[in-house]
Design a protein that fits this description.
- The complex is a heterodimer.
- Chain A is an alpha/beta fold.
- Chain A has one domain: 3-Layer(aba) Sandwich (Rossmann fold).
- Chain A is built from four helices and eight strands; from the N terminus they run βαβαββαβββαβ.
- In chain A, the strands form two sheets. A five-stranded parallel beta sheet of chain A has the order 3-2-4-5-6, with helices on both faces. Chain A has a three-stranded antiparallel beta sheet with strand order 1-8-7.
- In chain A, α1 (about 10-25) packs across α2 (about 40-55).
- Chain A starts with a strand and ends with a strand.
- By secondary structure, chain B is α/β, with parallel strands linked by helices.
- Chain B folds into two domains: about 15-140 and about 295-310, Aspartate/ornithine carbamoyltransferase (Rossmann fold, 3-Layer(aba) Sandwich); about 140-295, Rossmann fold (3-Layer(aba) Sandwich).
- Chain B is built from twelve helices and nine strands.
- In chain B, α1 (about 20-35) crosses α12 (about 290-310) and α5 crosses α12.
- The chains are: A alpha/beta, B alpha/beta.
């Protein structure tokens, strides 16, 4: 397995900061906004965003939740192993909120489809926008596009793009991995 | 930890390893969260059809299964023997094959004969879930009991569980013993000698005929229902009177105070209030009887979800 670093920590941090400022620029303030991270890897991004957004705006809190999509997947019987569900922690109704759905890598779009489905079980949001750290834009299987993108990565279907976080992996970076045939 | 169940059917607790049970519990945790949402429904089994075949009366197990299936978005057909052709003499395999030819993927079955589900699993293609077969097993009840203990006490391993009452006729008792032993709990069976299987000790459990002794020993007391229909049905009397049974093996506040312990109280339902347990204890602070019912739906969702997870849809004609 060869791994190529496509984003190291300084540029990584700038990207997070840019996305935060972009969100604030669009909305003015965080009232009515809810950040919802998708399990298992999107929540690291969502937690970082929450921390940085609160630091930048000086606001005390923003509605924040984590969503597990295991039971909403369309492929759970095609996979070799059954996925063990992660925890969903969403203790508010999304009714009438402007939700930002957050994931680390957008690839086929199927996780986001499941995420939307799962999110709607918590009420009818006023709007849902999608923020991803990496968009692998040429491998989409469903008509789903992000509203906020950290980096575009053009890669082959057989490759793997992984986003690592200080909190979980000890370092902030994006790796491109080629699985040897 | 294993991520796939080691079995195609759930015929008895014997089919499951401790790792399988832990997988079921972890999955049930996820479903408990789903059940607390405003919309308590997920689309996981929307391409699965499940037949609930109840050849014996049941209220809560049947509703619990049906609710679990509907909350997983499965299509459900219900069948009960009182309204069916079995009354006209049709055999079990014929009845079930007729239903399966309507493209049913899973069967949840309760049957008065021990081993009926095992027999069925050898003759039909669908996945079978045993919802109680005679005096043999009732695996999902044992799973939800163990899950409720795990939720209340944080663990099952090392917990002392007394199962009290009609052990002889109870499929709940047998499934519970196997399940709890596999998970590392200690089990004591307690009941009158006439309602205790002769070889009970060979299951690796303690046996007592004194409820006070069992209560002093245990962390959890699972009070079984006295099966009035079986008492009357076979023309035998296992004890002189209900009044005597309730004096010797009934659980009330006075007895708990005399013993000086407050074990967690469980009951698989339906309760004969005033016979095996008084209302005061059944509705008291240490009772988790209603939690058992609530957990039943989540545990059954987990079992159905995991069994369906092993089904290869592409291989199906």
């Amino acid at each position: 397995m060869q791994a190529l670093t496509i984003l190291e920590s300084t540029a990584f941090d700038l990207t997070v900061q840019r996305l935060c400022h972009q969100l604030i620029e669009d909305r003015g303030h965080l009232g009515g906004t809810a950040l919802v991270g998708l399990q298992p890897r999107g929540v690291f991004f969502a937690r970082r965003l929450r921390r940085e957004l609160l630091r930048i705006t000086g606001e005390k809190q923003v509605a924040y939740g984590e969503l597990d999509i295991t039971f909403h997947r369309d492929d759970f019987r095609q996979r070799a192993v059954t996925a063990i569900p992660a925890t969903t922690d969403l203790d508010f109704s999304v009714e009438d909120r402007r939700v930002v759905l957050i994931d680390d890598v957008l690839f086929t779009g199927r996780s986001i489809r499941a995420g939307l489905d799962a999110l709607l079980a918590f009420g009818r949001p006023r709007s849902v926008e999608l923020m991803v750290f990496v968009d692998r834009r040429f491998n989409r299987e469903l008509p789903i596009q992000p509203d906020y993108v950290g980096r575009y990565v053009d890669s082959l279907a057989g490759q793997r793009v992984s986003v690592e976080w200080q909190e979980s992996d000890g370092v902030d970076r994006v790796l491109l991995q080629r699985t040897t045939p | 930890m294993s991520e796939v169940l080691g079995t195609r059917h759930l015929l008895g607790i014997d089919d499951l390893s401790a790792a399988d049970m832990e997988l079921i519990f972890r999955t049930a945790d996820g479903f408990k969260e789903v059940l607390s949402r405003p919309i308590k429904k997920v689309p996981s089994l929307r391409d699965i059809t499940i037949a609930n075949l109840f050849f014996e009366n049941s209220t809560r197990t049947r509703i619990s299964f049906e609710l679990a299936e509907k909350r997983l978005s499965a299509d459900v057909v219900n069948f009960s023997s009182s309204t069916s052709s079995t009354k006209k003499g049709e055999t079990l395999v014929d009845t079930v094959n007729n239903i399966l030819s309507m493209k049913v993927d899973m069967v949840v079955m309760r049957h008065p004969d021990p081993g009926a589900c095992i027999f069925l699993s050898r003759h039909v293609q669908a996945r079978i879930v045993n919802a109680g077969d005679g005096t043999h097993e009732h695996p999902t009840q044992a799973l939800l009991d163990a899950y409720s203990i795990r939720e209340k006490l944080g663990r099952v391993k090392g917990v002392k569980v007394a199962i009290v009452g009609d052990i002889l006729h109870s499929r709940v008792a047998l499934s519970n013993v196997i399940c709890l032993r596999k998970l590392g709990a200690e089990v004591m069976l307690c009941g009158p000698t006439t309602l205790m299987p002769r070889h009970a000790r060979e299951l690796g459990v303690l046996v007592s005929h004194d409820l006070n002794e069992a209560l002093r020993w245990c962390d959890v007391a699972n009070m079984l229902r006295i099966q009035l229909e079986r008492q009357a049905g076979d023309g035998l009397a296992y004890f002189p009177s209900l009044r005597e049974y309730s004096q010797l093996f009934g659980l009330d506040r006075k007895r708990l105070e005399a013993v000086g312990k407050q074990p967690v109280i469980m009951h698989p339902g339906p309760i004969n209030r005033g016979v095996e347990i008084t209302s005061e204890v059944a509705d008291g602070g240490n009772s988790i009887i209603l939690e058992q019912v609530e957990n039943g739906v989540a545990v059954r969702m987990a079992v159905l979800f995991l069994l369906a997870g092993g089904m290869d849809r592409t291989a199906k004609g």
